[in-house]
Amino acid sequence: MRLFVDTANVKEIYEAAELGVVTGVTTNPSLAAKEGISDPDAYKKTVQEIAKVISGPISVEVVSTEAKDMIEEGLKIADWIDNVWVKIPSTLAGFEAIHKLSDQGINTNQTLCFSTNQAILGAQAGSTVVSPFVGRLDDIAQDGMAMVGEIVEIYRKFPTIKTQVMAASIRHPFHCHQAALMGADISTVPFGIIKKMAEHPLTDKGMELFLNDWYGSK
Ligand code: E4P
Q: Whole-structure pTM over 0.85, yes or no?
């Protein structure tokens, strides 16, 4: 399973890139707004900054709601950088946009996916990747990770489906562990959680003991 970082914070992305553990980035309008980005020009500038250190896919979301507007916006976004995945919501208009953008060779990320059926539709429409939102489903007492498992199982059953599965709305390190076991192709993870994935008290204790023994013996 590949790891992407789920943020529009350039500093965090540069730090994550230095670690060598992430191969892509996902952004969305809320993450962009959090960084003070509120217009397409500023969004474009930020995405181009990100592309200097991340050679893998960078997801950029449309804010239009009608299919023809999503397509127009998606085509503009596709010009910003080489490796963009245009994020399109899981609505009927969204499926039309995914279908027409993918027909033109544009990679798409079917976002805001909350059901297995939505993922089935996205695959038919030709989405490059589907993003099941795990944490937001857990928040309403539904099993987000079970949805990831079902989508992976169905996609693998039908080899003509080329759509990848990216576990999104990841809230804690155990979500990443579970997504990998479920066979998700990618997990997109906030940088704070990536850092937590590295933590283990026995690693800290072990280092302390090793260093005490080494320096204590001098
Ligand atoms: C995915 O691409 C989204 O940006 C993200 O995972 C949403 O997560 P949230 O539920 O934490 O906002």
A: yes
